[in-house]
Amino acid sequence: MTMPPIDLPGAPFLSQRQGHLWVEEVCLSTLAHQYGTPLFVYSKAAMLGALAPYQKAFAGRDAQVHYAMKANSALGVLQVFAQAGCGFDIVSGGELSRVLAAGGQANKVIFSGVGKTRAEMRQALEAGIACFNVESEAELDVLSAVALSCGKVAPVSIRVNPNVDPQTHPYISTGLKGNKFGIAHEDTLRGYLHAASLPGLKVVGIDCHIGSQITSAGPYLDALDKVLDLVEAIEAAGVPIPHLDFGGGLGINYNGDTPPAADALWAQLLARLDARGFGKRRLMIEPGRSLVGNAGVCLTEVLYLKPGEQKNFCIIDAAMNDLPRPAMYQAFHHIVPLAQRGGEATVYDVVGPVCESGDWIGRDRWLSVQAGDHLAVLSAGAYCMSMASNYNTRGRAAEVLVDGDKVHVIRERETLADQMRGERLI
Ligand code: LLP
After folding, report:
1. Is residue 59 assigned to a domain?
2. Which of 64, 92, 286 to mutate to test the pocket of ligand 1 (most atoms within 8 A of CB)?
3. Is 314 considered catalytic here?
4. What is the tens place of the pLDDT at every residue in 98-123?
């Protein structure tokens, strides 16, 4: 059997030319030979192309896109979004330091997460971030005390848990009652009255993020209505809510998924906001995956082919430490050869060298390959490198960013010395 054709998520930035896969104006086989593998390759045009529909949707509105940098926190990637006018959604003091190192502005940073430490609060207050997205009543008290001790007032929003099912993988659902995130919507009014009574806090908004890889508008509309009902109740109780933050979560096409385009989704949400009289409010969003997921691929080399009675294995030099999503969420990523060799295809489980049966990157894939060939794992721009580890003492991959025919190395391959830095023999 020959390989069935696949659509290339990420087109038009990915193309096939003379039998080779290209990103923008650069041939990926050349990059694999030049920089070695595993290698993450990102397209700047693809990132800006993913941002454009958000910018189009919000044109003429008082709105700010905060890139949720946990999706991909490479400095070079942050720089692209900072230069395009984005703010950032962070979840740690480390991420704040990265934003500043990449040239981002602290006053366009919002700080999410259920477990902010006092030291992180202090760091963010000193830097002057735009807002703390607070996730519990206990955090309100601590943040107020920390702010007072620094002689500051902390701008806050409360993350509402609206109990809406985002219809996605359970590990990436965040807005259901059983999830650890946010304050239950029944308790939100009480939370705001409490926040407004604390001397170290200033209420500046409300926020909500219900999950990730969401592929329909319905859950967003349900969450939006619940948040707006709350805003009405909170304002009626005397606490103004200047901004509305609807989080991130919009899915991408990994394998025929059909999420709405960002502008189409927001046309619907903005129509609802307008209809309910909130269209002129300051609006904020926190997209991550939808800005970078299909802007990146991971290049890898086939090390061995291992035929078997039940399964054939294609063993590659990238593994679950580089691409953790299949092991963690049974996620699907297309895997395609960088150079078409034609000929018979065989069905393989594509696996890495890590000593775990969970170390698979793709199951039952038709490939026509030999040892030494290069493959691309597609849709690898989000939650791959940012979740990479050193398991099995594997150095983390190098990263390059392609801009037209230019190639920028934005992260060198991690060395053994990097990995062992700070360790001591007893
Ligand atoms: N805002 C908050 C508060 C979040 O927790 C997240 C993601 C985002 C925004 C961005 O969501 P996005 O637009 O990327 O869906 N590692 C998982 C995804 C975890 C998402 C965590 N929170 C994966 O690989 O599927």
Report:
1. no
2. 286
3. no
4. 999 999 999 999 999 999 999 999 99
**Which residue from 289, 290, 384, 389 has its CB within 8 A of the most atoms of ligand 1, so it is best to mutate?**
289
Q: Any residues with Cβ below 6 Å from ligand 1, and which? A: 68, 71, 89, 112, 172, 174, 209, 212-213, 247-250, 286-290, 325, 329, 383
Number of the ligand 1 atom closest to the C-alpha atom of 290: 13
- Mark whether 129 and 218 lie in a shared domain: yes
Number of domains in the chain: 2
Integer Cα distance of 376 and 171 in angstroms = 26
pTM tops 0.85? yes
Same domain, 123 and 264: yes
Contact 317, 301 (CB under 8 A): yes
Residue 178: the pLDDT is: 75
What is the residue whose two structure tokens read 């199951």? 363
For the stretch 60-103, pLDDT in tens is: 999 999 999 999 999 999 999 999 999 999 999 999 999 999 99
Does 171 share its domain with 240? yes
Letter string b/e over residues 151-187, b meaning 16 or more CB atoms within 10 A of that residue's CB = ebebbbbbbbbbbbebebeeebbbbbeeeebbbebeb
